[in-house]
Write a structure and sequence with these properties.
There is one protein chain. The chain has 223 residues and is mainly alpha-helical. 75% of the residues lie in helices and 0% in strands. The protein is built from 10 helices and no strands. It is globular, with a radius of gyration of 18 Å. The chain starts with a helix and ends with a helix. The model has no long low-confidence stretch (mean pLDDT 94).
Length: 223
């Protein structure tokens, strides 16, 4: 899901991402049924509506939809519309709402400590939401890999890093980003992404602790 969200905010919608929206819908449906709040349920409703509207489009109709969505992306995220939505942590959290402020430098250190680098060719700063979500996706993959390898201690360390990144970064500014996006978006796609992002990050906030406790209990039982 973090990889999906990273792609959603990185660039405008293309043919491949239209397919990904349909592919992620079953997972979103399951998540929405397990969450007590309404954010993921609303995200499921809106993205299912969008997927239904777009799934059979071909030729000029599909190109017209992609053009409309590209224009909305530019309006929302590239400063070309009346209600710009900022996707960079420093802009949200720094005193003067500028790029490359303290959050940026903190993010750089977090990435360097694990040898993570943003995708080559992506020109936005490292505290852009797409990069932060990609970093979280990598942390999740590294956690899963260590569990596959049977290294529970290292898996717990990665879970703690997820918890810290949520606490020190995503939780501090992503909810505000989502509020801005929900108000500014016109299409069910971007309104749905606002609800999905807010709901998923909120839900994920408790998962590292839960998994850590589960792994510790498993370790205690085997000792």
């Amino acid at each position: 899901m973090y990889s999906f969200l990273s792609r959603a905010f990185k660039i405008e919608v293309d043919d491949r991402f239209l397919l990904e929206i349909g592919e992620v819908e079953p997972t979103l449906r399951l998540l929405s049924q397990s969450q007590a709040g309404n954010e993921l349920k609303e995200a499921d409703r809106l993205l299912a509506e969008f997927a239904e509207q777009s799934k059979d489009l071909k030729g000029e109709k599909k190109e017209s939809l992609l053009t409309e969505l590209a224009a909305e992306y530019a309006s929302l995220f590239l400063g070309m519309g009346p209600k710009p939505v900022h996707l960079v942590e420093s802009v949200h959290l720094s005193k003067d709402h500028l790029l490359y402020q303290q959050p940026f430098h903190e993010i750089i250190q977090a990435y360097k400590s694990l040898g993570y680098e943003k995708e080559k060719g992506f020109q936005e700063p490292e505290d852009h939401v797409a990069v932060e979500f990609d970093f979280m996706a990598k942390l999740c993959r590294w956690t899963a890999k260590t569990l596959d390898d049977g290294d529970i201690e290292k898996a717990i360390a990665y879970l703690n890093l997820q918890k810290e990144f949520l606490r020190d970064h995503l939780n501090l500014w992503v909810p505000k980003l989502c509020q801005e996006l929900e108000k500014a978006a016109a299409s069910p796609l971007y309104k749905g992404l606002a609800h999905l992002t807010k709901g998923f990050v909120a839900m994920d906030d408790g998962i590292p602790d839960h998994l850590t406790e589960t792994l510790k209990e498993k370790t205690d039982q085997t000792q």
